[in-house]
Design the sequence.
């Protein structure tokens, strides 16, 4: 295997609801290598963002158990001071909503400069400005000089997202976590931003965790894909494993419900019945996706589903994938 | 069914102490469209292209600067009862329902505005509507936060169909939803279209959704149409460079097509730069539409290949 950048082992992040702790991220084990894009997909409420925030330890009140090893260093037990050094310097995060990720009262240039200054307080004023200009150009903003003195609200959504990306990469991080970076953007801008992330990965030699619910984005960007449901990884493998040969019922259902999956307009789109259970209601034993495919007999599921390797590098949770069929298909013998 | 003729919506830009008008934003700048009864017309464009403004001005939420909107041959007068025939589904099911009101009050509001019903009749109608949108009749006493995104969008739909309208303007009805929920809402919109004989103006930036839903499509760019035609015209035989660029930007779910898509995108972008004179005038706006077949029209100079 290539250089491992980040390793998660049995990661469990729990939040307190009333008097109990509930795991929003449960038993997540994965690795991210250098120069690799790992996509994390799932519906909203599946724990994708909670996973991203756990890696950077941005949750203030969560209980984090398990192992997060970043370049051989344990993040779970790291001191707050050390975390401050790591965040923004060695791990960069691109947030989804660029309008709320930027301070509306501070000029764009100064916000980016702050991200650099925090990790290098000896930098001269002129060098700082030069670096900000360089970053703005790097993320594809042509009129860097005028954007420098503008405020966030004066920029379009696509431009703001570029600024957020510029801040995330200001210190050339080794790991870039992008939380739905293009969800709020138009398709043409999305294509440009994805191109940019791809280019940055090559330039910085960084590993990227791309969190998204858009399977098209996954197919375009990812080297490997992890599918999350109710806090757990239900399927993980290379992009070809997961997109071309999906095994877990959840992955198959997601792919099947896209409008592009059907041939004619008269066909109905596949609907995944039910909803993602809210945090306190996640079933803690057995297959968590069971309730949303009630036509599959109980006996198909494992009592304690674990991830099993079905082909090298392709893992699926719970044995129910062997018995799964869509309700309209009938039982295949 | 509905005919929009040379619709213009300009917003004044005001500046200075006296808020004098110093110019106009031409949000919608002379568009024409016809929607046949029982069909779905898709309005596509990026943010800022004027598609939402078009929808809003048809239902009377934005002031029309000039142009005509004819509904079943009659000029649409929104202060009159004709407006009950046109209803709207909003984009965000989290902000378009009043969080302090019960579902009963939300869904009954249009009924209270237009029909004098006794409380018992009203209750019956609302329960009937709830069963049409697939929610349990008891849920009318709940509040919006007790529902999931897809269910909330159904409540918005129940409100829109309460008065048995003929035309529904759906402004990005599924863009705030997950794919699985999106499928639910789209299926459902198609179902009630057949049952109730509805006509939709479907506003969206998601071309794969538009392809699934719409019979006719208009592509907007900076307040004007660059291309219009049937779904097949647009998807199988796109002519305008902007349409090609939009289509090229859709990600495919096939990871093996990655490089092909990127190469195509680069090609289209290069073409976009090189041939912009042919497709856009000196101010960067689209030319008037020119018919190239009985259904298909493109805004460009020169001959169509």
Sequence:
């Amino acid at each position: 295997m290539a250089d491992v950048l980040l390793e998660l082992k049995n990661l469990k992040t729990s939040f307190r609801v009333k008097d109990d702790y509930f795991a929003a991220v449960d038993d997540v084990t994965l690795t991210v290598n250098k120069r690799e894009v790992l996509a994390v997909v799932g519906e909203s409420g599946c724990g994708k963002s909670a996973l991203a925030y756990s890696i950077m330890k941005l949750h203030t009140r969560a209980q984090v158990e398990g192992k997060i090893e970043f370049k051989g260093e344990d993040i779970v037990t790291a001191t707050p001071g050390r975390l401050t050094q790591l965040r923004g310097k060695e791990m960069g995060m691109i947030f989804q909503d660029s309008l709320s990720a930027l301070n509306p009262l501070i000029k764009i240039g100064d916000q980016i400069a702050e991200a650099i200054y925090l990790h290098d307080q000896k930098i001269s004023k002129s060098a700082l400005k030069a670096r900000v200009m360089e970053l703005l150009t790097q993320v594809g903003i042509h009129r860097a000089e005028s954007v420098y003195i503008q405020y966030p609200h004066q920029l379009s959504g696509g431009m703001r997202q570029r600024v957020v990306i510029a801040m995330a990469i200001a210190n050339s991080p080794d790991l870039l976590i992008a939380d739905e970076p293009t969800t709020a953007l138009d398709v043409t801008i999305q294509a440009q931003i994805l191109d940019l992330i791809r280019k940055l990965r090559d330039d910085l030699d960084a590993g990227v965790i791309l969190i998204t619910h858009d399977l098209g984005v996954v197919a375009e960007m990812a080297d490997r894909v992890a599918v999350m449901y109710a806090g757990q990884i239900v399927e993980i493998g290379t992009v070809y494993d997961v997109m071309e040969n999906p095994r877990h019922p959840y992955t198959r259902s997601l792919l099947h419900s896209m409008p592009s999956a059907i041939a004619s307009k008269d066909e109905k789109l596949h609907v995944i019945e039910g909803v993602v259970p809210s945090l306190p209601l996640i079933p803690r034993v057995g297959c968590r996706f069971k309730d949303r495919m009630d036509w599959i007999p109980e006996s198909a599921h494992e009592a304690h589903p674990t991830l099993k390797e079905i082909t090298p590098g392709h893992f699926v949770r719970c044995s129910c994938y062997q018995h799964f069929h869509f309700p309209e298909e009938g039982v295949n013998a | 069914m509905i005919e929009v003729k040379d619709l213009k919506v300009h917003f004044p830009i005001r500046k200075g102490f006296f808020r004098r008008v110093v110019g106009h934003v031409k949000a919608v700048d002379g568009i024409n469209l016809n929607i046949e009864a029982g069909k779905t017309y898709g309005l596509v464009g990026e943010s800022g292209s004027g598609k939402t403004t078009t929808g809003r001005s048809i239902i009377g939420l934005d002031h029309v600067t000039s142009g005509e909107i004819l509904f079943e041959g009659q000029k649409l007068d929104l202060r009159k009862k004709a407006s009950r025939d046109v209803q709207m589904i909003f984009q965000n099911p989290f902000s378009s329902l009043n969080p302090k009101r019960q579902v009963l009050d939300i869904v009954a509001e249009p009924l209270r505005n237009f029909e004098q019903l006794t409380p018992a009749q009203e209750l019956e109608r609302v329960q009937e509507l709830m069963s049409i949108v697939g929610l349990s009749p008891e849920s009318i006493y709940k509040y919006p936060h007790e529902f999931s995104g897809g269910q909330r969008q159904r409540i918005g739909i129940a409100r829109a169909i309460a008065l048995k309208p003929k035309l529904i303007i759906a402004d990005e009805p599924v863009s705030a939803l997950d794919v699985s929920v999106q499928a639910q809402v789209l299926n459902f919109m198609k179902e009630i279209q057949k049952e109730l004989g509805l006509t939709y103006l479907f506003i969206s930036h998601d071309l794969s959704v538009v392809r699934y839903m719409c019979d006719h499509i208009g592509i907007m760019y900076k307040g004007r149409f660059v291309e219009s035609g049937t779904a097949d015209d647009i998807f199988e035989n796109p002519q305008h460079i902007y349409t090609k660029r939009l289509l090229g930007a859709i990600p495919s779910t096939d990871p093996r097509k990655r490089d092909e898509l990127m190469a195509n995108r680069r090609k289209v972008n290069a073409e976009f730069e090189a041939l912009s004179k042919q497709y856009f005038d000196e101010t960067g706006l689209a030319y008037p539409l020119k018919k190239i077949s009985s259904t298909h029209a493109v805004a460009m100079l020169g001959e169509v290949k």
Summary: Chain A has eleven helices and twelve strands. Chain A has a mean pLDDT of 89. The first helix of chain A runs from residue 48 to 55.
